[in-house]
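FAQ
Q: What does a multi-component entry look like?
A: The components come first, one per line:
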Amino acid sequence: MRLAILAHEKFPDRAKTAVGLLRYTDHEVVAVLDRDHAGDHVADHVRDVQDAPIVAGIDDVPDIDAFVVGIAPIGGGFDETWRDDVRGALERGVEVWSGLHSFLEDDAEFAALAEEHDARLWDVRNPPDDLTVADGVARDLDATVVTTVGSDCSTGKMTATCELVEAARERGMSAGFVPTGQTGIMIEGWGLPIDRVVSDFTAGAVERMLVERAEEYDYLFVEGQGAITHPAYSAVTCGILHGSMPDALVYCHEANRGAVHGYESFSIPDVGEHASLYESLAEPVQPTSVVAGSLNTSKLDDTAAREAVEEFSTALDAPATDAVRYGCDEILDAL
Amino acid sequence: MRLAILAHEKFPDRAKTAVGLLRYTDHEVVAVLDRDHAGDHVADHVRDVQDAPIVAGIDDVPDIDAFVVGIAPIGGGFDETWRDDVRGALERGVEVWSGLHSFLEDDAEFAALAEEHDARLWDVRNPPDDLTVADGVARDLDATVVTTVGSDCSTGKMTATCELVEAARERGMSAGFVPTGQTGIMIEGWGLPIDRVVSDFTAGAVERMLVERAEEYDYLFVEGQGAITHPAYSAVTCGILHGSMPDALVYCHEANRGAVHGYESFSIPDVGEHASLYESLAEPVQPTSVVAGSLNTSKLDDTAAREAVEEFSTALDAPATDAVRYGCDEILDAL
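Then the predicted structure of the entire assembly, as tokens:
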């Protein structure tokens, strides 16, 4: 499929979904919409991802099969300055994907246009109605389940999971990605937005995905969310941990992050103690261990990055890497 | 208010909401509906609660102000054999309260009857639309927050919380109950059904209740849910733990329960280790400790019960009681 991705005024640093898609989707990105950078190319801003022209609006987008809202404002609502772009996409009859908290299908104009032009509206954060509580069966599956966990939100769990799946496949392993957030779901084309399911069904939703895919793959890599000690999001993390009943954990952290992002008065624990806490919390449900770590060193130069990875490995008492910068060999070897 | 409580074929042992209301509501229960026990009285089946006649159906119910669905079938749906009773209540123009997973207001006949007779349908498990993520502020509130936690579902957390509030008030303490489940919400007339909120908002919903009530009371007792190591429901428990940022925890357990109810292949951890795990999980967000325990000994004779409480106290390394059987002095003294 040919995609255009909306990222007005936020590309690339505040456009996590857009950059995630550019890096990991198998589809072709033919345009990024950012009125602040119209005329540039993606490659002018981000390395090691698909290149594409940056345009000002839908009228400058070539033929596409899907239009993606690739950013979210604070609060997760729809920004009215995007309306012309979404309207234009629907008038072309192409799919529109959105990871916003507020759903495009609840917008009367978009719903009407989608019906008129037979265009699919895909609100990826809208979970299905038939979710249930977990049966507690993930530990009985034949596939080896590996779940990424971490010290905070946005420490690189989705990225590390994507890198792990790619690297595992390069080694000839049968590896599947289990997406739990909007970017991962858009990359893979399926998945459940775990942070949006009813809290009673958190573990059950993860379990459902694993049961669905366990016969297809030998290894399933589950994208983690949040942190088990996050003051706001720990419920999501805990449900993923116990719902996935993983055989192994990969601990993700960002170099030099000492406080919880957006909750700066809360400190991030020592990573070794934190990793042990994940193990202690998992143990009564299904014993597992942190077998390796991935450190996001994107803000460091190479010398500092290598030192930071070494320190991180020591603190974790496990092999470590920066999955993006140095690859996943340490992690895959540890599995 | 005068209540009638529907509990067909399940009173009393499988009618947790009905029995909870009979024990703790300030309202007057004028009838329990159970076609299997029509003609009996509540007192024939349960001690130490309000007495009321048990009747076969709505036609035998005297004047009431509210009709309560006080049971839930497996799956939480509406049982069609109850339709005549709910219809009859709505035709009288009285409120109908329900804790079912499926909402009465989504039933076309009930919605129409409610409108026609100006009767309120209160689906207590239907959370409001405006919930948000936590701000992380519960630890800053002036009130002392006490949260009940436990080894499993149905170990007596709601009951212990109700008993604690009553006992605290008898001591002259300014104590409020923070309800997180359907029975507690019906008892108190307010609250948020934490297991039904979006998982991202779990901690935020608890925090909202605490913020609302913290100025009114010196002590807030938060009703816990599930267990931090429950294979299906741990997300809910974790959100309540971190959302409430409690000053103290009260650990609730049922004597002789060794496996997770409904998930019998999962063992319940040693209670001392389990209590420490709650503390370790809370610590990076807000340090707290298990100050006391309550053991449900309802299936034991008095000698065995006293021995079990003593053993439980030793395992927990904290004072313990059975809050229903022996009162709450040990717990309140420990606070």
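Q: Is there any commentary attached?
A: Sometimes. For this entry: Residues 3 and 29 of chain B are 5 Å apart (CA to CA).
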